[in-house]
Design goal:
Layout lengths: L12 H8 L8 E4 L24 H5 L6 H24 L6 E5 L4 H15 L9 E5 L7 H4 L3 E4 L15 H7 L2 H5 L8 E4 L13 H4 L14 H18 L5 E5 L8 E4 L2 H21 L13 E5 L6 E9 L5 E11 L5 E7 L3 H20 L5 E15 L2 E12 L12 H8 L3 E9 L3 H7 L1 H5 L3 E9 L4 E10 L2 H20 L8
Parallel strand pairs: 1-2, 1-4, 2-3
Antiparallel strand pairs: 5-8, 6-7, 6-8, 9-10, 9-12, 10-11, 11-14, 12-13, 14-16, 15-16
Helix pairs in contact: 9-10
């Protein structure tokens, strides 16, 4: 963009794929960036996943009998977040390679989303800008017309399954499951699996109520056939096993992400509240979506894990796994979550990265070898909790446990690629990435922080202007000389966003 310094990343996904998989040089890999949903279809061209099930925050929070207005709001939030903001943020790190993106049903909204993505990428140096390819939906992707040989998807999508993938689709889905980590043998909290008995009878052969509601996301409570009997039996067995489990523990659904599908149980009161939520909302929806086409993937399994006590560090590790199984360290960031355990922001200390590389070398190598056994290569992230040191001989060693494994591009990935931009060239040794929502257009936001953007201290890595709601949403990366300066800068940004919300003169987007 005019007047903004160009960003040169330390490396990019394109370069990592090139170095990590030299035998694939003859083929062209395209990164397909989106977040899949099993809750609603964000557009008429982008269907909700029915085979590869996911449990994001909208899955967990949306009532089974949600109104049309509730469904519309969920659809809108998924459209903005899953098809625009997250793909833009991820595309910023891809480098010079094809990137497949998807638009909305509305021509104006789709054009605006495309324009926003192009504006975001324009601050990158020309040789590191991705080749953005926009499609109305997954079924419209014509790889041969675009010179693409294989897709490297962020996460498996039903409507892309028939196309060539870098990693087998069902394998990729399994690797991102909580059961995969539970059974991997990698350092992680002790866990047990709760499985359901296969799947319910088909709605078409159950009863009149079910036959008339075959597209429903859960078995109707008014069902008079075998499906409701099966469902009640499965739920009762699940709740019985949970009630027998000693507290504290953590319950996770098989494919939860973004804070969705994770529940912390510390007291009997927590367990009662969770049991009510599971019985009335989560399990009816989750168990109903298992069918003959996906039962072999065990998409409705639950994982019960021991709670890690008194962690002294909450780390987000990002790295790239080569085809040979080598794990290439990118960054270790500190993660901040809110009271609902949803990601808020990530912090990075660039001077500390060399020491952190050594600290996580062993566990990172273990993950790389394990993933290589499934022929996976590509970006990866791991959420790691560090507990007080264990005594070994005359020295103390930290105990590192993987609490989540994200075999895909992660939200903090770009932070690890900006050490040169922030620390080496500008003396900004601390950095953070976080989301903003503000009643300003991109131009107004840039003007409000013109000095910071002009010096390269702030970078927009995704942006979307919601004309209907009159707000903009985005992801911003910020650098500062020290941790105190970083916190002050973040507070200043959040204060501006809050003031724009309170002040009547900002009610019309600037």
């Amino acid at each position: 963009m005019h007047g903004l310094p160009h960003i040169t990343l330390d490396t990019t996904l394109a370069e990592l794929y090139s170095r990590g998989c030299p035998e694939a040089q003859g083929g062209k890999i395209a990164k397909a960036l989106f977040v899949a949903s099993s809750e609603v279809a964000p557009t008429t061209k982008f269907a909700r996943n029915r085979k590869f099930l996911y449990q994001d925050p909208t899955f967990s929070s949306t009532p089974n009998d949600s109104s049309l207005e509730q469904q519309r709001e969920v659809r809108r939030s998924i459209l903005i977040g899953y098809l625009s903001l997250v793909p833009q943020r991820d595309a910023f790190a891809t480098g010079n390679m094809p990137v497949v993106l998807f638009g909305s049903d509305e021509s104006g909204s789709s054009a605006r989303s495309q324009k926003e993505a192009e504006m975001t990428m324009s601050v990158l140096t020309e040789g590191q800008r991705p080749n953005l390819m926009f499609f109305p939906g997954p079924k419209e992707v014509r790889m041969e017309d675009c010179g693409i040989d294989t897709l490297a998807v962020k996460m498996p999508l039903d409507d892309l399954e028939g196309l060539p993938h870098v990693v087998g689709v069902e394998t990729h889905y399994f690797l991102n499951s909580k059961a995969a980590l539970c059974t991997s043998g990698l350092p992680s909290p002790k866990s047990t699996l709760i499985e359901i008995h296969w799947y319910s009878p088909s709605s078409s052969v159950c009863c009149r109520v079910c036959a008339s509601r075959q597209q429903a996301s859960s078995i109707p409570s008014t069902c008079t056939g075998p499906r409701i009997t099966w469902l009640r039996t499965q739920i009762a067995q699940t709740l019985s096993r949970l009630s027998a489990h000693p507290t504290p523990f953590v319950l996770k659904t098989q494919q939860g992400f973004g804070g969705g599908g994770t529940y912390f149980v510390s007291t009997p009161s927590d367990l009662r509240s969770l049991s009510t939520l599971l019985e009335n909302r989560i399990l009816p929806k989750l168990y109903t979506q298992v069918h003959a086409g996906n039962a072999h993937l065990h998409p409705a399994s639950l994982v019960v894990s021991e709670m890690v006590r008194e962690p002294v560090g909450n780390w987000g590790l990002t790295f790239f796994v080569t085809r040979a199984g080598e794990a290439v360290f990118l960054a270790a960031t500190r993660q901040v979550v809110n009271e609902s355990q949803l990601w808020v922001e990530s912090y990075i200390s660039y001077p500390a990265q060399d020491g952190l590389r050594a600290k996580f070398k062993g566990i990172m190598r273990q993950i790389g070898v394990w993933l290589s056994g499934y022929e996976y290569y590509g970006p990866c992230g791991a959420d790691i909790l560090e507990t007080t040191a264990a005594h070994q001989g005359n020295s103390y060693q930290p105990v590192l446990q993987i609490v989540d494994l994200n075999v895909r591009l992660c939200g903090s990935h770009v932070l690890g690629l900006m050490r040169g931009h922030f620390s080496r060239r500008r003396g900004l040794h601390e950095g953070s990435i976080f989301s903003v929502t503000v009643r300003m257009r991109r131009e107004g936001f840039l003007a409000r922080f013109a000095d910071e953007f002009g010096k390269g201290e702030m970078v927009i890595v995704s942006w979307y202007e919601d004309e209907e709601a009159g707000v903009s949403s985005g992801n911003v990366v910020v650098g500062a000389a020290d941790e105190g300066g970083l916190r002050r800068k973040i507070r200043m940004i959040r204060d501006v966003c809050a003031a724009a919300e309170r002040n009547p003169e900002f009610k019309v987007m600037l």
